[in-house]
Amino acid sequence: MRRVLPFVCPPSYPFWRQWVAALQEAMPDEHVVVFHELDARDLASCDVAVVANPSIEDLRALPNLKWVHSVWAGVERLVADLGDLDLKIVRLVDPVMAETMSEAVLAWTLYLHRDMPRYAKQQASREWLEHEYVGAGDKTVSLLGLGALGTASAVKLRGAGFQVCGWSRTRKSISGVQCYAGEEELLQMLGRTDILVCLLPLTSKTEGILSAEVLGALPQGASIINFARGPVVDEHALRRALDESKLSHAVLDVFNREPLPVNAWQWAHPRVTVLPHISGPTNRRTASALAAANILNYRTTGVLPISVDRKTGY
Predict the structure, then answer these.
(1) Do residues 23 and 288 lie in contact, with contact meaning Cβ atoms separated by under 8 Å?
(2) Where are the alpha helices (DSSP H) in 49-204?
(3) pLDDT tens for residues 187-197?
């Protein structure tokens, strides 16, 4: 008899049927059921669940649950919400997502590199004016975060001809990339940066890391791209840096509140490009295949996949 495998998500989540179908296709030996369709017997029998922004109340309703497999790479909200609930979290690490994110990093880096915000503004005012071209090899793009997403992005940026730097909590080594680590080296890296791309996970140590001091260490006229999480940026410091032309532009895909409220300052700021959290979408097919492999191995061996360190948040 097939085991019941719950998919736990908010009742309002619009894509739960698609996730259940994708997971079921990847795991024919499991019986994938959305949480709100579980009966009392199912609730008591489940030891593993696949989750997408689950409520903690729903997880507590599964008394024998040992671990959950997130379908997102970012699990900071889940880690924060668990409290004293003794539960292992496995986050999604998908090479396809890394490739998708690196594509977005390159696309929006090129957007800034080729002065597209400036030319869009000129079009709006019907102004025909050519500006001096600076080659990619004369621009330094720096990445905050050199995990799977950052590494893939660094490789793609190097392929496009940019000078690439990267910073991480612990030192990394990537061919062709100048790697930095630690607070002092962060400021050193920022001093040579033309475009800063943030891909850090949100943790207690990265919240607000893009502070007034850090933004101030960037050269005059630098730009930033935030594809991490909204709270890694001090919004007041960012707005001040943009207002004072310290920063020439910011591409923002993530915010403290999402969806971004209609009265938020970012919408109308002339130096901001707003994106609706679309830089690194999860691929349901590959994510389901990865979850299936981890769950099958657990069913076969009893060994859990590598789980999130609740202290570091990743």
Answers:
(1) yes
(2) 56-60, 76-82, 95-113, 116-124, 148-159, 183-190
(3) 999 999 999 99
162 and 197 Cβ atoms separated by less than 8 Å: no
**What does the block give as tokens for 54?**
């689950």
Decide if 53 contacts 74 (C-beta within 8 A). no
Catalytic center residues? 229, 277
Token pair 């409290």 is at which residue? 83
Assess whether the previous peptide bond of 259 is cis (omega < 30° from 0): yes
> How confident is the model over 35-53, as pLDDT tens digits?
999 999 999 999 999 999 9
Residue 26's identity, in one-letter code, is: A
Burial of 303 (0-12, 13-18, 19+ CB in 10 A): exposed
List the domains of the chain with CATH numbers: 3-94+282-301 (3.40.50.720), 98-274 (3.40.50.720)
pTM of structure: 0.93
Beta bridge partners of 8: 51
Strands (E) located in the chain: 3-8, 30-34, 48-51, 67-70, 88-90, 140-144, 163-168, 178-181, 195-198, 222-226, 247-252, 272-274
